[in-house]
Amino acid sequence: MKRAVNALVTGTARRYTVPMKFHTKYLTFSTKKHRDYINITRDVESAVKESGISDGMVLVSAMHITAGVYVNDAEDGLIADIDDWLERLAPFKADYRHHRTGEDNGDAHLKSLLVHHEVIVPVTKARLDFGPWQQIYYAEFDGQRPKRVVLKVMGE
Predict the structure, then answer these.
(1) What's the pTM value of the predicted model, to 2 decimals?
(2) What is the pLDDT of residues 30-62, one digit of tens each?
(3) 91 with 35: CB under 8 angstroms?
(4) What are the residue ranges in the chain where pLDDT is below 70?
(5) DSSP character for 89?
(6) Which one, out of 80, 87, 110, 124, has a CA that is 20 to 30 A from the CA of 8?
(7) What DSSP state is assigned to residue 83?
(8) Rg (CA), the chain
(9) What is the pLDDT of residue 144?
(10) Which residue ranges make up each domain of the chain?
(11) Domain 21-155 belongs to what architecture?
């Protein structure tokens, strides 16, 4: 795919195309716990490096409706606080209407909605363009089976 770019060169507008690069990578997780939070920042950095882009963005998206992806601090106390907060807002309980289908993971769907399923992180000079302390996490809310995350790196 090529992207049209307008440029002003010595007072004359010129139009040229810049080829965009795309790189896709899949991560698979099978957690030992029902709920888990996994720092995937290095995996995302690796995908950016593999892509060869200098400037652009990376989309990080959970491919399951009972998982999520978020950006926050990599501090154990905060991760426990996030887990406690999500459990208070969407507690595991037997009486979710979703459970009438034979499922037992209504809380996992709600937790996923609260965390969201994807983030977009800018890439500048071939690096994730984060603020201090920011890290990317995969959040599992109905684990103990294989689930995937897609990384889509786009840029030039």
Answers:
(1) 0.87
(2) 999 999 999 999 999 999 999 999 999 999 999
(3) no
(4) 1-16
(5) H
(6) 124
(7) H
(8) 19
(9) 87
(10) 21-155
(11) Sandwich (2.60)
Q: What is the pLDDT of residue 33?
A: 94
Q: Residue 93, Cα to own-chain centre: how many angstroms?
A: 27
Q: What is the pLDDT of residue 19?
A: 83
Order of all β-strands in the sheet with 134-140? 36-39, 134-140, 67-73
Residue 21 CA from chain centroid, whole number:
19
Which single residue is written with the structure tokens 């109905």?
A: 142
Burial 31-68 (b: 16+ CB within 10 A, else e): beeebbbeebbebbbebbeebebeebbbbbbbebebbb
Cβ atoms 5, 16 nearer than 8 A? yes
| Amino acid, single-letter form, for residue 91 | P
